[in-house]
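User: Sequence in, structure out. Go.
Assistant: Echoing your sequence, followed by the structure tokens.
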Amino acid sequence: MSAHCMLTGAGPGFGNRVSHSHRRTSRRFDPNVQSKRYWLPSESRRVRLRLSARGIRTVDTIGVEAAVARIRARGVRI
């Protein structure tokens, strides 16, 4: 399971862990990606979307139909 949001495209960021002695090792900042099911009335079925927390708020604002249209415009298959 990749840590990418289907709607916003948010992916992991990279940086460094810095210890008390100031040694640096690489680390990864993963977005808060969650799997969520929505009812898609136009297709009379449920769709499972992997969305970040910001993506979930976006779906709540614009609606699931518009969100699925944006996801499909990005070339992601649902």
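User: And one key feature?
Assistant: The mean pLDDT is 96.
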